[in-house]
Design a protein that fits this description.
- The radius of gyration is 19 Å and the shape is elongated.
- The chain has helices at residues 10-42, 45-52, 55-81, 85-112, 114-120, 125-140, 142-157, 162-183.
- By secondary structure, it is an all-alpha fold.
């Protein structure tokens, strides 16, 4: 599973390692974009505005998750590079626990304080209920999202950047399929479906 990134031509090694991470970051951002596009095409303008009004908060959560995972990846890769395998395992475990706790905190804060967040974002009254519904459902997904980022950081630190990309591509297609399934008849769930 682990790869030695010190062997080979530097440009090729860096490119083949970094490209899957770049593509994965794009796919992670696509989750909200796809939700917005599906709502925009299949629901009304109020639903689209409700989802769109949460974009800055969703972006913030994704960036915090990515930033935390990069920081964890640095620690894991340094320990792995120093051949301190026991410490590497401990760092991976600590990363997963930390990301899980962060996800739980985001979920709790996001669900409990959704009204305050939406007021801070000056969400208009006519789309407020839709925005709140989408935002709270999004926050319920923070634990798996942050755990994914923690697992990805461990794989990246060990030199394996393709496997997390494959998982993210798969989950993106599942997300798209579920978006359509839950928004269209017979479910007609609207914002809650995406």
């Amino acid at each position: 599973m682990a790869k030695d990134l010190t062997i080979g031509k530097p440009f090729k090694v860096i490119l083949t390692f970094a490209l899957p991470m770049i593509i994965a970051n794009i796919f992670q951002q696509l989750y909200n974009i796809v939700d917005t596009a599906v709502v925009g095409q299949l629901c009304g303008s109020a639903e689209l505005a409700g989802v769109g009004s949460t974009a800055s908060m969703v972006f913030l959560v994704v960036q915090v998750a990515m930033g935390a995972s990069v920081g964890c990846s640095v620690v894991i890769s340094q320990l792995f590079g120093a051949k301190r395998l026991k410490d590497t395992k401990t760092a991976i475990y600590t990363t997963l626990v930390t990301m899980g706790v962060m996800g739980a905190v985001f979920t709790l804060v996001g669900v409990v304080f959704a009204d305050g967040i939406l007021n801070m974002l000056s969400t208009p009254a006519d789309i407020y209920a839709l925005a709140k519904q989408y935002l709270q459902i999004y926050f319920y997904g923070c634990i798996p999202m942050l755990l994914y980022n923690g697992i990805t950081s461990a794989f990246n630190a060990l030199g394996e950047s393709k496997l997390p990309l494959y998982f993210l591509i798969f989950s993106s297609f599942v997300n798209i399929g579920l978006d359509f399934l839950l928004v269209l008849p017979p479910f007609n769930m609207g914002v809650a479906g995406v």
